[in-house]
Amino acid sequence: MAAFNLTLSDPSTFILTGIPGLEAAHIWISIPFSIFYFIALLGNFMVLFVVGKEETLHKPMYLLLCMLALTDIAMSTSVMPKALCIFWFNVTDITVGGCLTQLFFLHSSSMTHSAVLVTMAFDRYVAICNPLRYATILTNTRIAKLGLLGMMRAVLLILPIPLLLNRQPFCANRIIPHTYCEHMAVSKMSCGDTTVNRTHGLVITFVVIGLDLMLIALSYGLIIRAVLRISHTEAHQKALNTCTAHICVMLTTYTPFLFTTLTHRFGQGIAPHVHIILANLYFLLPPMLNPIIYGVKTKELRYKLGKCPYRI
Which of 144, 180, 248, 297 lies at a C-alpha separation of 20 to 30 Å from 193? Predict the structure, then answer.
């Protein structure tokens, strides 16, 4: 306890408690978390390695998979190393600068991830509704530009959050009951007016992510309309199969994101440890499952991944 009070006396330090109420079980909780993180890193780095090595995979669809893999690695790595340090070594302190840096990277990588999913939905729309023009509409260069645009959008929208928080006076109680520096949790540490921060966070959550979901819904609405016009059953099934992997990835991403966001803001009746575990799983499950989903559903990638161990 003395060490805890000593750390709190440092005005440049926050304390991340981990999962409140389950401190005694941190070691046990770290086992599935570390396994999920390892699988996520292994799967996504394998996708990057195989696509980079195989020239036959240098196509827009696989370039998008590389972007998805990079955002998955960034999302999980922005949270898990510090969380595991808390679980394994009880290293709970984090500087204000480190906290705001973590906040920036975890939120910007999450928003970039959403932008990649929108681009992938557009890719599926063009592949099904305009297959003859696919190669001219979606080139590797155009996909790279769309990815860069998504990253710039995330940086420009997220950067004001840590900059505004850095100007806030923080209270003496700097204990954050979480495993990472989440925006709303850090905002609660401030003794000043955080109305601008909270409003900005709500706008990003419900307007930007809402816009992404609307664009994805529009793409799939047009896809469904095009598919219903196909009279041949086999062609009908083939068109739907091309979208299965993307739909699964969207469900694994947006479902936990919306659930954790809504429960954090409006679910006062939910136990804190439940919310924190679910929030951590949002940064673990999609990065772990995405390469598995695409590895299973994409025949060409599955074949190349199968040959990968022999080439290594």
Answer: 180
CB 183 within 8 A of CB 261: no
d(CA 223, CA 219): 6
| CB hemisphere CA count around 20 (13 angstroms) | 11
Strand-pairing partners, residue 170, are 190
Pick the range with the lowest mean pLDDT from 66-70, 201-205, 261-265, 278-282. 261-265
What band does 309 get if pLDDT is binned at 50, 70 and 90? low
Q: Please enumerate, as own/partner, the contacts of 202-211 that have beta carbons within 8 Å and a separation of 24 or more.
A: 204/107, 204/111, 204/157, 204/158, 205/261, 208/111, 208/114, 208/153, 208/157, 209/111, 209/114, 209/254, 209/257
- Residue closest to 290 by CA, chosen among 35, 34, 47: 47
Q: How far apart are CA 57 and CA 283, in angstroms?
A: 27
The pTM score is 0.91
pLDDT digits (tens, 9 = 90+) for 49-107: 999 999 889 999 999 999 999 999 999 999 999 999 999 999 999 999 999 999 999 99
The closest alpha carbon to 180, from 85, 44, 42, belongs to 85
Tens of pLDDT along 4-21? 443 444 567 999 999 999
Whether 197 contacts 107, CB under 8 Å: no
Give the model's pLDDT for residue 204. 87
Residues 211, 201 contacting (CB under 8 angstroms): no
Q: How far lies 206's CA from each of 50, 65, 199, 202, in Å?
A: 36, 26, 11, 6
At residue 197, the 3 state secondary structure works out as helix
